[in-house]
Design brief:
By secondary structure, this protein is mostly helical. It is built from 15 helices and no strands. Helices cover 75% and strands 0% of the residues. Helix 1 runs antiparallel to helix 2, helix 5 packs across helix 10 and helix 10 packs antiparallel against helix 14.
Length: 417
């Protein structure tokens, strides 16, 4: 037997150092220890047989790597076996299956930063659009009181809309900056251009009503004679852009991620169009005598039908997302708006010859329009604050998609939060 050489002494010291380190580590099972010892013995035999080789340090490092490799493979096999036994054996998991909840019940979506001034902007924009349509009806049918009331109200309403919008933007220059581009896929960009086209037309049409008080001679007389035809063209232009002004705000709300606004994208433009017509009719019933209020009464019927139909749809069609429109402050506002709308239309139809009844009907229609806009606004805000209105509809859509594609439950795509 060949006496141990320098390589054998080094290997013996290496094994003693490994044994000392293993004593400080947690105890392992006998099978893992035997596997590691077998790998070390095999490596030791190979190193000892090559004692005369000059690369003794490389052999020692190789033996160490072989020992660690064997140990890691044994540990991996043990973990895999335990994992397989847990899956295949049907043992009860210590950790229950995760169920999604928001962090301390906090909202998942960032709620709208808009305040009451944007809800007021929704109303004044619709009032301006409805008043321009009323003015155009009075202009085309020869009813000067109706035309005058519509034009003046349209100018006042669009001026208030500009104030509310600039207040929300913070600086008037931001409105100008939005005119640098025209993006058809952006409701806000299109709304900026709609306001830009509507505002001057409504202003010129309202200024043209001052032609009757100007002198008939001189430069002012010339301006007085030129204003009526210019006002006629401007009034028709304002009426042509009024439907877009009345409905683009509904598209703007539906284009957001707010659940109850986004899901009601077919109904919001209908509600806002009906509310605009009803508010314009209210102006006509208030300002015009009963003999000239025929177009206003017809507008009231059409606007009330659209508004009540759309409000009924958002409160019944959206499932869980209809709750914000039925509960709390939004529900009270919308219910009061429906009652005032129905009362205003009834008064307009039954009190055709009474100026007092017409005035009450017009006031009821205007108040109903305000309540409807604020109810829709606060309903969307409420849906963004509660995480249930974000998670539950997403899960329902995922389940419906999984059922339609006939996928197993573990392959369903999780809801994107």
């Amino acid at each position: 037997m060949t006496p141990p050489g320098p390589v054998g002494d080094r290997f013996r010291r290496f094994r003693e150092r490994l044994a000392a380190e293993d004593g400080d580590r947690p105890q392992v099972s006998e099978d893992r220890r035997s596997a590691a010892s077998g790998a070390a013995a095999t490596s030791g035999t190979e190193v000892a047989s090559g004692g005369d080789h000059p690369n003794d340090r490389g052999a020692t490092a190789s033996s160490r790597r072989g020992d660690l490799t064997a140990r890691r493979s044994t540990e991996a096999g043990g973990r895999q076996g335990r994992r397989g036994r847990r899956r295949g054996g049907g043992e009860e998991l210590r950790v229950p299956e995760a169920e999604f909840t928001s962090y301390y019940g906090r909202p998942i979506l960032k709620g709208p930063v808009w305040k009451w001034d944007i809800a007021a902007y929704l109303f004044t924009g619709g009032l301006a659009a409805g008043s321009s349509l009323l003015a155009a009806g009075g202009q085309l049918t020869g009813r000067p009181a109706l035309r005058r009331a519509g034009r003046v109200t349209a100018l006042a309403a669009v001026s208030a809309s500009a104030v509310f919008l600039v207040k929300d933007l913070g600086r008037p220059a931001r409105f100008h900056h939005m005119l640098r581009v025209a993006k058809p896929t952006s409701p806000m960009s299109m709304g900026t251009w709609i306001l830009t086209a509507y505002g001057p037309a409504a202003g010129v049409a309202a200024i043209a009503e001052a032609a009757g008080v100007l002198p008939r001679h001189g430069l002012l007389g010339l301006a007085g004679r030129a204003l009526p035809p210019i006002g006629h063209a401007a009034g028709l232009l304002a009426a042509g852009t009024a439907p877009a002004l009345a409905t683009y705000t509904g598209v703007l709300l539906a284009d957001t991620a707010v659940p109850s606004w986004h899901e009601a994208y077919p109904e919001l433009p209908v509600i806002f169009a009906g509310s605009a017509l009803a508010s314009g009719a209210g102006v006509g019933l208030l300002a015009a005598p009963p003999a000239q209020a025929g177009p206003a009464r017809r507008m009231a019927v059409a606007g009330a039908a659209l508004e009540l139909y759309g409000a009924h749809r958002v409160e019944t069609r959206l499932g869980l997302l209809s709750e914000p429109y039925r509960l709390g402050r939004p529900g009270r506002l919308l219910r009061a708006g429906r009652l005032l709308t129905a009362g205003g239309v009834a008064g307009a139809l039954l009190g055709r010859r009474s100026r007092v009844v017409g005035a009450f009907s017009g006031t009821a229609l205007l108040a109903a329009s305000v309540l409807t806009r604020f109810g829709i606004f606060y309903g969307g805000v409420a849906s963004a604050r509660d995480p249930r209105y974000t998670v539950v509809p997403q899960r329902e859509r995922v389940e419906a998609r999984r059922t339609g594609m006939d996928l197993p439950a573990d392959r369903a795509v999780p809801p994107a939060v």
